[in-house]
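FIELD: query
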Amino acid sequence: MIDMVKYEHIIQEIVKVISQFTFEFTFIEMQCKMELREVPKDVLDKLGEKKIMENVVNKVFYMRLPDGKVIDVNSFCDFIKKNDIKSGSKILFNFKYVRWELTEDLCTTQIKKYIKQQLTNNNDLVLSVLKKVLIVEELKNKQIDGYLGEVVVKKSNFIEQGKFYIQANCPPEQAYKLINETIDELQVEKENKSQIFSEDNTLQQRERKKIKIFISYSHEDEKIKKKLETHLKGLERTVGVITWHDGKIIAGKEWDEKIKKELREAGIILLLISANFNASDYIWKEELIVAIERHNKGEVIVIPIFASECDTVDMPYMKLQGLPKNAKPISKFSRKDTAYTEISKGIRYAIEEKLKS
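FIELD: result
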């Protein structure tokens, strides 16, 4: 059973902390995030002359002269004395008040960072339930008179031990809004992680299901085998098959045992049919017999690939569906790539059927 009181307490505690939220940056960090901006006219009108002068004296406001130079109150007084400017002179009114302002909403960013930290510290929280509790807390709060608005930043003029401190007033309504946004972000993150996990599992399953293609061929047909391999590269990249033939045996290995092992592990066996294939004693005694036996047991798909013209009457592999269609040899095609493409597509179909099983 879900402890609703716990959820309420978490939200109430977050709202309480961020109502008067203070965070700090080094002075160098703050310099990169602040710039001098003109004080809006409506702000000046609201402050009035007395308050404006207080801000100037306290070096909250600075003055930008017509030439773009920015000076503080002391420099401004020196400027007036140096240039013997009289009171009421036109130049006194030909400047703009400017102040340092943050170039990005650091307050909201830092507050949401804190909220996220508090929510993720509780691994057992159900975000959908948290949303419902948040709505209730927000409704309860609206029974009390308050004010709406974005986060209000209180300017801090003191620097202590190289740190710049910012305090933000976050009214309850804004706090609920930020918590709500953070929950939404966490839900998206959770969904993305779940999707990535699902994709990883799918990839792992495909890795486990990778099909090995064994090519049985005569070394006299090396060129045809290489051309076939080239066309099978697309299947290796898209379907994830592994192509193997005896040319991949590392020097010094027991080649006979290695061939037998690969034959036993293959999911598809391609027989590169030619007069050379039919003439090979090793192929007939070791490879073809195993291939046919495994095929009859349903352990492997055996596909004859008709490379060149030869006598195929009563051959055991003629009971199997081969490629290209109608047992037309590759050598009979005027455009050889057409034959290899047909073969590749036929093998792809066989792989897809194999993966379904």
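FIELD: remark
The domain at 209-356 is CATH 3.40.50.10140 (Rossmann fold).
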